[in-house]
Amino acid sequence: MSNNIFKGKNDIAWEKLFKKYEILEEINKNNYFKIKSSQIKEFNEPRLMTKFDHKKQLPQLFIDNNLAILPLTRGSYIISEMETYHDFETQKTKIRSVEFPANIQSIDINNITSEATAINIAHIAGMVEDFTGEASRLTVSGRMSSGEFSFNIFNRRIDNFSIDIKKSQIEIDAGFETDTSLLLFEVKNSVSDDFLIRQLYYPYRLWQAKIQKQIRSIYMIYSNGIFTMYEYKFEQIDFYNSTKLIKKQAYKFEEEAINIQDITSIASRTSIIPEPTDVPFPQADNFSRVVNLCEMLFEFKTLSKDYITINYDFDARQTDYYANAAIYLGLIVKSRNQKNGTIYQLSEIGNSLFNKTIRDRNLTFVELILSHKVFKDTFIKHIEESEMPAKEFIVQSMKESKIHNVTAEETFKRRTSTVISWINWILELIS
């Protein structure tokens, strides 16, 4: 197994299962392996061992062998070389501003800490109606049986690979009914690169067999004040991988815009702090995920490294990278205990962010980033020349900053990608 240093509890348990039941040998012989919950439970809770909402969460044995797992019934699963995930489309979309009803007092739109609250707010504020073009009412949600159906799925080992589903458990975050449609929502409050098609496909198959109205499948992500909705269509009802993006739109609540003067004012008044010597220089290119990690910690207060890796779109290495990036900025603190190993929680600075509006929170992130010389130098150079400075300029600033534990030229160059990405995140805040 690769990346042994990052092996988690799920990896270890699945290694034992693969060895005991000769799973790889069975897949090589029969193209698949069916496993029962009772077998999985010999080594760990099936709920924890089979919940892989994103590709990176898969155990290393699955990744190394191009394997995936899907539920067949309430107590059985199939493992094979199936393609079960869909990468989110990366095209940019202009963020549409909406107003939140002034008479609603029981919701704090600056602190949306759950998926249920996020979808409620999206509906109350008219985002759902704007996105779908239809007025709707909440009619279904929660756990239910999938019913019985069959489908084909892309399999690297065999063409026309068919799977039979019989009363598997599914969960619908929200189902809104309109005059013509049933809108089925899967909602996440974590940033990710892909999603598990099953979370849209199984509910789609259940309800298209039960009612005559059109079934519309929508995936919504909420993070840092932005609600992003993706509508997908299954072009072939019995083909799991026939997902096609119909539309994408992002929303936020109206507030005072951030302009270039706000950012340059922060840059001019922010003093440079010494580089930390107890944490690596950041290697976390997606700053939105640093923000999202802080949101998770605000909701749960304390999270272990294993929990973050298992439940969010991070592999173990990325959990280290993004947590260390937040530590670098003074947003979270790390400790260890015997029960959970490495654990994280928000620092005093990190907690204080969630007493601010989204706008002021983002400006605080900017201030924390620009308090480090290499980021401030790169931002100012970009403003002066109206383009991102060359990597050589950023490397020289790193060397002058004496960043922690980096000496090799190639390592300096690799770290420039994080600097460039974070500066682009700052620039994208500007209306």
Topology:
Elements: H1 9-21, H2 23-30, E1 32-36, H3 37-40, H4 46-50, H5 60-64, E2 68-73, E3 76-80, E4 85-87, E5 95-98, H6 115-124, H7 127-132, E6 137-145, E7 148-153, E8 161-166, E9 169-177, E10 181-188, E11 194-196, H8 198-208, E12 214-223, E13 226-234, E14 243-253, H9 260-269, H10 287-300, E15 302-304, H11 305-311, H12 316-328, E16 332-337, E17 341-346, H13 348-352, H14 358-370, H15 373-385, H16 391-401, H17 409-428
Parallel strand pairs: 5-14, 10-12
Antiparallel strand pairs: 1-3, 2-3, 4-11, 6-9, 7-8, 9-10, 12-13, 13-14, 15-17, 16-17
Helix pairs in contact: 9-14, 10-12, 11-12, 15-16, 15-17, 16-17
The total of beta strands comes to 17
Whole-number tally of structural domains: 3
Report the top-level CATH class of the largest domain. Mainly Alpha
CATH topology label of the largest domain = Arc Repressor Mutant, subunit A
Write up this protein.
Helix content is 39%, strand content 25%. With 431 residues, the protein is α+β, with helices and mostly antiparallel strands. The protein folds into 3 domains: 4-81, no CATH class; 87-253, no CATH class; 260-428, Arc Repressor Mutant, subunit A (Orthogonal Bundle), CATH 1.10.10. Helix 10 (287-300) packs across helix 12, helix 15 (373-385) crosses helix 17 and helix 16 (391-401) crosses helix 17. Mean pLDDT is 95; it is low at 1-5.
